[in-house]
Amino acid sequence: MRRLPIYFLLDVSESMIGENLYRLEEGLSHIVATLRTDPHALETAWISIIAFAGQVRRLLPLTELTSVVVPSLPAGGGTSLGRAMNYLMDEVDASVYRNTPERKGDWKPIAFLITDGKPTDDIAPALSRWQQHYASRVSLVAVSIGRNADLGVLSQFTDADKVLTLDDSSDGAFQRFIAWVTQSVQARSRSVGDVTKEEQLPDADVSILKKLNLDKPMERVDESNAYFVSKCQRSELPYISRYEPMHQSFDVGSAQLSATTYRLVGCYPVKNSYFEMSSEAPNFATVESDQIFGTPSCPHCGNRIGFAMCSCGNTFCVAGEGEQTCPWCQQRAYFGCFADGESVEISRARG
C-alpha cells in the first residue's frame, strides 16, 4: 500500500508558550481524531510530528494513522528554522519510499510548518539544499501564527499561495484553522495520484487566514516580546516570563528621544526539557532592569516574587526577604528589596 506521508514541523520556542502551545497540542489531537473517520485518510495517511526551538526533536516517527498517539509538546529557546528544515529533509530521505524497479514509492509528502517567530539561526545552507533537492518532492505549507514570523523567509521555502498568516489568536479562530488543516489533509488523501489536484489546498477562511501577497510590502513587526527564563527555588523547574514592549517618545529641548519599557503579560511553567530544546549558542541579548515593569509569581510553587536576581546573573522565585538558595548555582545569600538600587542587565531569552 502506498503511503501519504504527512509531516507537522512545529515551532515550540518561548514565543509559542502558553495558549498557542496548548491549542496546537489540542489541535493535533482533533486532526488525528477527525482523519480516523475518513476512509481515504485511513487507507493512506501516515503522520510524523517534529518540534523545533533552538534544537530539533522528532516527537513521532512516521506512523500509520490508526496507531498515532499525539505527544505532549515541549518548549525551548530559539527558533532554529534552518536546523529544523535540515532535519525534515533528513527524515524524508530516511522514511519516505521512492520509486524503484521493484515497487512504487510513497505518494508525494505534505509538510505543515507552523511558526510564530523569526529564525535565530542561519537558514542559507538549508534553503539551498531544499530548493535544489526537495522543493519539488515535498509540498510545504507554511503558517505564521500572528505577524511576527518572517514571511519573506517562509516564501523562499514554498510558493507564496502556500504561505498563510493566522492573524486571529482567539479559541474560535484557532479551531477553524485546525479544521482547515484537517480538510487539507483529507483533500490530499483523496487526490493522490492526480497531479492536477495534489497541490491544491481548500479555500482558506479569509476572516482568519490570509495568504501572502507579494504585490504588497510585507509588514515588519519590531522585536516584540522579551522573554526571561527563571527557576523555581523549591522544585528547580524552569518557567518563562513574557514582557510586552511599550515604546515612548518625548521631547528634550529641540531633540526627540525614544525609550522602550517592558510590561509583564504572562508567566508560564515549563519542564526541564526546555533546556534540551534550547539553542546551545551563547546569548548576549539583555534588558536593563529599570526597563521592566511587573513581577510574576512563581507558576510552580506560588512564591509571590518570581523575579529575584542572583549574583550568578540568573533569576528565580522567593517568598520574601531573607536567606535564599539560588537553584541555578546553589549559592546562599540574603535577598531583599532595595528601591534605590542601580539598574542591572538581565539576560533575555531568544524567543
Automatic annotation (TrEMBL):
It holds the Pfam family VWA. Residues 5-185 form the VWFA domain. It comes from the Bacteria. This is TerY-C metal binding domain-containing protein. It comes from Xanthomonas sp. 10-10.
